[in-house]
Amino acid sequence: MAEDTQQLREAIDALDDRLVALLHERAELASRIGALKQTTDQATYVPARERDVLERVAALAGEGRLRPEHLIAIYREVISACRAVEQPLRVAYFGPAATFTHQAAIGRFGNAAELIPVETIPDVFAETQRNHADYGVVPVENSTEGPVHPTLDTFIDSDLKIRSEIMLPIRLHILSRTTLDAVRTVYTNPVAFGQCRQWVARNLPGRAIVEVVSTARAALTAAEDPSGAAVAPELAAAEYGLDVIARDIQDLSSNYTRFYVIGQPEQSVPTGRDKTAVAFSIRDHVGALRDAADVFARRSINLSSIQSRPSRRRAWDYVFFVELAGHEVDLILAEALVELNRQCAFVKVLGSWPDERPPI
Prior knowledge:
Blueprint lengths: L4 H36 L6 H13 L8 H19 L3 E5 L5 H10 L4 E5 L2 H9 L5 E8 L3 E2 L1 H7 L5 E9 L3 E4 L8 E4 L1 H5 L2 H7 L4 E4 L3 H9 L4 E5 L1 H7 L2 E4 L9 E8 L10 E9 L5 H10 L5 E8 L7 E8 L5 H13 E11 L6
Parallel strand pairs: 1-2, 1-3, 7-8, 7-9
Antiparallel strand pairs: 3-4, 3-11, 5-11, 6-9, 6-10, 12-14, 12-15, 13-14
Helix pairs in contact: 1-3, 2-3, 11-12
């Protein structure tokens, strides 16, 4: 007997009844956990627990119709809703709405969180520092264009710590209310333009390129210009009433931006799979940077990233930012930090957080 559409829909409805009941049960358990956390002054957002839940859910995909990434997307919203039952979170992000940072904040905290756009990266730090937001989301590095300097610079004088990181694939599109051939002006954030410069040169030669502060501002400006177009994420098309007239224009297919989730200082618990960020400045003598790096090399601590920035305190004085494997309270890393403090003029641990990359 052939399957009947109505019968299948009724079976889906019955499953939905069970799913909703189970979701209510999960939310009740989350509420009880939230009450316990309040009595012991524990944080609502626990990155290590979230990582473990999502990895477990992804592993349950097996041979089913839903792939691991589908289940992760669903459960991020489930976690967001259950976390709101514990305590609604306020999250500041480098805005305005429909930027990649906004997209990263939604992906990490879900739509149940109160997402607060602010105008600059230092403003994200300031709002979080003043407890106007529980957490902040700021970009730190793009795989094509490199580090985001305002984020690194603001850490030097901030008491906030890195709580987790977000890795977001960056897909850039041309948004407009006209056709590609009719575009006369392209509005773009400089960082975004650096990621699609070759595509624009090939496909929109001779057009005026106007730089603006963000991809969202590019979309808003293009929406007001009949012959204008924006380099922006798809999220901005719906936000500002534009059409996607060219997709995936980034020059490199493997184009990612990393973001930090920042929050008030609190001691995170080592998980055995962690990352730590450290800022330090060296004393001015031959081999000083080599000696600092050797502190980690002799202990086989892997440095996954190193950047330098002018200290802005005196000429030719630099601050180095490194990311490395391990947690700041791990015995070997703790010993390395003690030695680094003896060698350097300035050392600051910016935070330790769970490494969300799949284990090798």
